[in-house]
């Protein structure tokens, strides 16, 4: 007796997800080339803020974010008022140093202490002279240098 062959069952398809998707996931492949072109300048703007903005602006504000032509700066309240008045000068300085019109407007967010990107220079205090009972010759000189190096540390 010949057995009847069972028909092949269809392979179950992966369930479709009908949930809402974020627009960022849809737009990412489209805008990625544009971001790739602009990202090096934005990265240099955030990394080299002290040299690009100048010492007078860098001491009062710190860059937080750059997106869509808007540079967000963290500063104190009084500094924000002053920087808002000087924003055309700062924008032109930034765009000149970047070589293209990237910064269109500035946005200020309040931050109580400004965290400087470069630490202040260490204070130089006088080092005491080395002890007098060191041996003569190269060993004494090396010990004197070691002594002064240890005493000059904060």
Description:
With 154 residues, this protein is α+β, with helices and mostly antiparallel strands. The chain has two domains: 29-110, GMP Synthetase, Chain A, domain 3; 127-154, no CATH class. It has six helices and three strands. It has helices at residues 23-47, 49-53, 55-58, 77-85, 87-98, 138-151, and strands at residues 61-67, 70-75, 105-110. The chain has a three-stranded mixed beta sheet with strand order 1-2-3. The protein is elongated. The mean pLDDT is 76.
What are its keywords?
2 domains, GMP Synthetase, Chain A, domain 3, 6 helices, three-stranded mixed β-sheet, 12% strand, elongated, 154 residues, 45% helix, alpha+beta
Short description:
With 154 residues, this protein is α+β, with helices and mostly antiparallel strands. The chain is built from six helices and three strands; from the N terminus they run H-H-H-E-E-H-H-E-H.
């Amino acid at each position: 007796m010949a057995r009847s062959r069972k028909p092949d069952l269809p392979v179950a398809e992966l369930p479709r997800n009908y949930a809402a998707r974020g627009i960022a996931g849809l737009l990412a492949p489209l805008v990625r080339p544009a971001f790739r072109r602009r990202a090096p300048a934005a990265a240099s703007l955030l990394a080299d803020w002290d040299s690009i903005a100048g010492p007078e602006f860098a001491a009062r504000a710190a860059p937080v974010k750059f997106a869509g032509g808007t540079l967000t700066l963290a500063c104190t309240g009084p500094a924000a008022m002053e920087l808002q008045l000087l924003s055309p000068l700062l924008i032109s300085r930034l765009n000149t140093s970047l070589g293209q019109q990237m910064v269109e407007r500035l946005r200020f967010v309040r931050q109580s202490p400004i965290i400087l990107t470069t630490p202040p220079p260490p204070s130089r205090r006088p080092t005491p002279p080395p002890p007098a009972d060191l041996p003569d010759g190269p060993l004494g000189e090396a010990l004197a240098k070691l002594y002064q190096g240890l005493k000059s540390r904060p």
